[in-house]
Amino acid sequence: MTLDLVVTNLNTRDAPAPVAIGIAGGRIAAIEREIVCDAPVIDAGGRLGLPGFVDTHVHLDKACLLGRCGHAHGDLKAAIATVARLKADFTEEDVLARAGRCLDRAIAHGTTRMRTHVEVDPRAGLRSFRALKRARSDYAWGIDLELCVFPQEGLTNDPGCEELLVAALEEGADVLGGCPYTDTDPIAQLDRLFELAADYDVALDLHLDFDLDASTGHLEDVCRRTEAFGRGGRVAVGHVTKLSAMTPSAFERAAARLAGAGVALTALPATDLYLMGRDRFADRPRGVTPAHELARRGVTASIATNNVQNPFTPFGDLSLMRMANLYANVAQVGPDGFDACLDLVTDGPARLMNLDDYGLRVGAAADLVVLDAADAGEAFADIAAPLWGLKRGRRSFERPRAALNPPDA
Ligand SMILES: [Zn+2]
């Protein structure tokens, strides 16, 4: 076997001792205790390697808008209204430049796969979508980008929106999104989206709900349609903050329903924390759906970045290690749950996106991020820095360790 590259002395989450990974043609060709050959070698120094972080939910088209907002930051409605005004002026070059800033950071934080949501409607037209199509090919060297087109401001109440979504699907959108909570007829939107997803044979990824009233909701409507259309395993819901406000028994029923129907879930801790509970002065609810508890009950679950430096979330660095740590703090996860939290930014989202070439195993894409830690527990507690990474066997980034400079003794 001819290898292009060998990574030695690499700790993984699966193997009890360091392994060597042999790479050929951008894929993992061998994983052994030792590999002896003439290929170039990178010594991982006994550090932890992961197959890259997977971000299932990022709004690249409306990222990095802070400088141009000029308004007081408010609630969800205010954020949607502000971006609705701004996006009419988005150009392809503008979207591409802001998306590029995000993708640079995501790659440097070890993310190798991403699903981006992109607004397609009469204000944005197809400009943001076409810009992100360019980003998808411009950045293919460092990250696989999946484009999910969606109607942020409603579908049935927005004449011309559906035609644009269909045009985007015709032009190569990977996934169809939705946002029933901003539609005047949420059920009609769900019906139409499930029909379109079946017609174009694409996955569905819905912004399902974004409030704390657990007495109503559309989770059951989504599960029922997922079964009726035979789309189990290809439907995901995002936010679903109502799940954070349920009684234990209602939560158990919802988890069983999601797992049974094959509906996956993404929690977006930064935005959920920033926008909700603003009517309260004290004792603000956390409002973040306990994704690791859903995963424990058999639901495919992930946590993701969502918004970056815009009216929905005025900060963000695209680091999923940091996001997982934020989540663990909010969800009060101790060391016995660190592994489960790491799953929420690696294996869980890879399953949500049906990435069949993901993982540190023979035959998978040679995607790798090496963290400045020996094992998963240390990496998670330390919010370990990514040191370098590979995308399809090629070095995609490196971040030298900080060097301290004490005075001479
Ligand atoms: Zn979102």
Automatic annotation (TrEMBL):
Occurrences of domain Amidohydrolase (ranges): 41-130, 154-374
Source species, domain of life: Bacteria
Pfam families: Amidohydro_3
PANTHER family reported in the protein's UniProt record: BLL3847 PROTEIN, CYTOSINE DEAMINASE
The protein's name in its UniProt record: Amidohydrolase family protein
Organism of provenance: Methylopila henanensis
